[in-house]
């Protein structure tokens, strides 16, 4: 265990966690909502520090990050736990270990130095904090990110964005890119994620953008919940206005899982409609996810429509940074060895 960051001590040896908007008040011997931050005698600890539950080498496109370091590979890591409770979670067996009786920790410890060493031996260009929510293993992620930056590796998060501003600001010092889930509406967050709403997620996305982190957005389109034209237009409009028209937008197909098995998979035509709406709202790079072989896997010039990055699954067949018509593709991720970013 390692003492947690971002908490305050209360009377009676209780503590209040300040990592995410839940701001859990935790009595001695208890854990927060995420199940992995535990109060021991008035001190809050991360009980998943150095305790990976998953590690794999992935293409960066799998995150999905389509405009950051395209064609590169990353070491993907995570611990158990999450600070949301999405009824449709695809990784619920590790995000919600209590569901399968897991105790939330692994026996073998993997120190931050070892993670970076593994990444370098694998010959990858960066490290992705993914599969579960990196916010809940914040201390572990942050220590790895600092070492990775020094080693010339990039750091990317795949996150629900449910984090408080202060820890988000600190993480942004070492973060190169992030894909944030934006689920659609306050009602969606309350009904399907056991969360108060989307305000904190939007605030975090804007903060990361302001600090120079490359931001891409994903919306899992769930039939009957966030697939209306008004909701899809609202998401796209907010992304264009607050994050910019060059922000890549991914509309991902829902598949029945966890506690939401009575809803059919998202029709491809619904995702195509979402793309059309997003383009009309002014977004230049819009994609469909979880529909293998769909033409929207590739990147097209927003000016003339010619293909610039041709993808097949998570692989890249060809790539051009500048179109014949003169349009320069919005890309990031070629400054992986830059020093710590100064805060604005």
Describe how the helices and strands are arranged.
Blueprint: E1 2-3, E2 7-9, E3 15-17, E4 25-26, E5 37-40, E6 43-46, E7 54-59, E8 73-78, H1 92-95, H2 112-122, E9 126-129, H3 138-150, E10 154-159, H4 165-172, E11 177-181, H5 186-193, H6 199-210, E12 214-221, H7 229-243, E13 249-253, H8 268-280, E14 286-289, E15 299-300, E16 307-312, E17 315-319
Helix pairs in contact: 2-3, 4-6, 7-8
Q: Could you explain how this protein is built, in words?
A:
This protein has three domains: 2-46, no CATH class; 54-296, Alpha-Beta Barrel (TIM Barrel), CATH 3.20.20.70; 298-329, no CATH class. The protein is built from eight helices and 17 strands. It has helices spanning 92-95, 112-122, 138-150, 165-172, 186-193, 199-210, 229-243, 268-280; strands at residues 2-3, 7-9, 15-17, 25-26, 37-40, 43-46, 54-59, 73-78, 126-129, 154-159, 177-181, 214-221, 249-253, 286-289, 299-300, 307-312, 315-319. Strands 7-8-9-10-11-12-13-14 form an eight-stranded mixed β-sheet. Strands 1-6-5 form a three-stranded antiparallel β-sheet, with no helix packed on it. Strand 15 and strand 16 form a beta hairpin. Helix 2 (112-122) crosses helix 3 (138-150) and helix 4 runs parallel beside helix 6 (199-210).
């Amino acid at each position: 265990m390692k003492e947690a960051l971002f908490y305050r001590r209360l009377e009676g040896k209780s503590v209040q966690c300040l990592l995410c908007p839940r701001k859990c008040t935790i009595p001695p011997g208890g854990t927060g909502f995420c199940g992995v931050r535990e109060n021991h005698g008035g001190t809050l600890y991360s009980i998943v520090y150095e305790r990976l539950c998953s590690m794999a080498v992935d293409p960066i496109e799998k995150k999905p990050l389509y405009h950051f370091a395209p064609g590169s590979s990353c070491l993907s890591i995570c611990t158990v736990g999450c600070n949301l409770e999405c009824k449709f979670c695809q990784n619920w067996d590790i995000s919600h270990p209590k569901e399968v009786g897991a105790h939330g920790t692994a026996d073998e410890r993997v120190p931050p130095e070892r993670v970076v060493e593994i990444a370098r031996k694998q010959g990858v260009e960066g490290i992705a904090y993914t599969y579960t929510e990196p916010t809940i293993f914040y201390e572990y992620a942050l220590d790895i990110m600092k070492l990775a930056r020094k080693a010339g590796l990039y750091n990317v998060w795949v996150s629900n964005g449910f984090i408080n501003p202060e820890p988000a600001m600190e993480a942004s010092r070492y973060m190169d890119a992030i894909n944030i889930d934006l689920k659609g509406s306050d009602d969606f967050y309350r009904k399907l994620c056991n969360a108060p709403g989307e305000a904190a997620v939007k605030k975090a996305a804007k903060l990361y953008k302001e600090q120079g982190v490359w931001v891409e957005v994903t919306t899992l389109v769930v039939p009957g919940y966030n697939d209306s034209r008004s909701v899809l237009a609202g998401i796209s409009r907010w992304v264009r206005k607050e994050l910019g028209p060059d922000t890549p937008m991914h509309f991902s197909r829902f598949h029945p899982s966890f506690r939401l098995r009575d809803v059919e998979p998202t029709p491809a035509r619904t995702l195509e409609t979402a793309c059309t709406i997003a383009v009309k709202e002014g977004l230049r790079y819009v994609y469909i996810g979880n529909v293998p072989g769909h033409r929207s896997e590739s990147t097209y010039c927003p000016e003339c429509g010619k293909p610039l990055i041709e993808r097949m699954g998570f692989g890249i067949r060809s790539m051009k940074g500048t179109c014949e018509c003169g349009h320069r593709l919005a890309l990031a991720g070629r400054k992986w060895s830059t020093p710590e970013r100064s805060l604005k």
